[in-house]
Amino acid sequence: MSKHKRTNKLFEASLVKEALKQSFVKLNPGILVHNPVMFTVEIGTVIMMCVCIWILNGEKSQGSFIYNFLIFLILFLTVLFANFAEAIAEARGKAQADTLRKTRQDTPAKKVFIVGEIFMDEVKVVPSSQLLKGDIFICEAGDIIPMDGEIIEGIATIDESAITGESAPVIRESGGDKSSVTGGTKVLSDHIKVRVTTAPGESFLDKMIALVEGASRQKTPNEIALTILLAGFTIIFIIVCVTLKPFGDYANTPITIAAFISLFCVLNTYNYRRFIKRHWYCRYGQGIKGQCNYQER
User: Fold this and answer.
1) What is the Cα–Cα distance from 183 to 211, expressed in whole angstroms?
2) Has residue 284 got a pLDDT over 90?
3) 138, 163, 148: which is closest to 196 by C-alpha?
4) In the beta sheet, which residues pair with residue 82?
5) Under 8 Å between Cβ of 79 and 45
6) H-helix or E-strand containing 158?
7) C-alpha span between 191 and 49 (Å, rounded)
8) Percentage of the chain lying above the pLDDT 90 cut
9) At what angle do helices 257-275 and 221-250 cross, to 10 degrees?
10) What is the rounded CA–CA span in Å between residue 256 and residue 266?
11) Are 45 and 76 in contact (CB under 8 A)?
12) pLDDT for the residue 250
């Protein structure tokens, strides 16, 4: 069995470079405020930076400078890494969208002209971007289907793995419920004539591009609920950490600012990770799957 070299790497140099740049751009509070957990961690980072400057100016009640600086560094790296992970995902999404867009634009189509320049039913090769709703094109073995449509003549075996991920080919034929074909799939055998059923910009590939870029998908109810829940827990953790101050004063036990910030950030980030991993992530995935299935229908 031959081994194929993987070309789709997770950390490509161009993607990493852009993601590193966006990691610092996303430190802008106006951008980070949409993520309440990381926004509060960033606030803690700024507070610890101020504490470090305060200690350098002679303050002795907040512990050593090295201890406070390490807390500041850990918090800063936490925010930076979270921004990097989000930026690398966005960069990969844009790269995939560009690949899909290129596939849509560069795919040749054998368009059938009912009244051609020389004879009837003349076939000319045109870019798939020039196909309009109602146009007719033909596909033979080895051709990539240029646009979503319905088979009006013929039968063919089609490889839909590029779209659905299913490796087994499917049979599509005219005159039944298996007559629809999707742009970007490949004809493996036989010959079919297809009528375009979607307008430019409304094909399955166009919808995939929009979903990858995140331009057309609204937040699911689970995403909205998760954001509200995390914001509520953040307020609760703030109240819990603030109430430690009078208890510490009553017990004559000084609590440094670094201890407050560390406790709050650990509680907040751990709670966020636990909900995403064990409960909400599963429901969110089911919501996306249901949405995709609805769009396919």
Assistant:
1) 16
2) no
3) 148
4) none
5) yes
6) strand 149-159
7) 69
8) 6
9) 150
10) 16
11) yes
12) 83
180 residue type, one letter? S
* Close Cβ partners of 216 (under 8 Å, ≥ 6 residues apart): 207, 210
Rounded to an integer, what distance in angstroms lies between the CA atom of residue 185 and that of residue 187?
A: 7
Could you tell me the maximum CA-CA distance found in the chain, to the nearest angstrom?
A: 99
* Threshold 0.70, pTM exceeds: no
DSSP 48-111: HHHHHHHHHTT--TT--HHHHHHHHHHHHHHHHHHHHHHHHHHHHHHHHHHHHHHHHHH-EEEE
Report how far residue 53's alpha carbon sits from residue 25's, in angstroms, rounded to the nearest whole number. 24
Name residue 122's amino acid. E
272 is written with which tokens? 């966020």
Mean pLDDT of 114-131: 73
Cα(260)–Cα(96) distance, rounded to whole angstroms?
43
Q: How far, in Å, CA of 116 to CA of 126, rounded?
A: 14
SS3 call for 113: strand
As a whole number of angstroms, the distance between CA 21 and CA 28 comes to: 12
**Any alpha helices (H) in the chain, and if so which ranges?**
13-25, 29-32, 36-56, 65-106, 161-164, 204-213, 221-250, 257-275, 281-296
Contact 94, 14 (CB under 8 A): no
Q: Which two tokens stand for residue 115?
A: 């009244």
The tokens describing 189, both together, are: 């055998």
Grouping H, G, I as helix, E, B as strand and the rest as coil, residue 187 is strand
| Contact between 162 and 152 (Cβ < 8 Å) | no
**Length of the chain, in residues:** 297
Q: Could you tell me the two tokens for 184?
A: 């970007």
* Token pair for 7: 């070309």
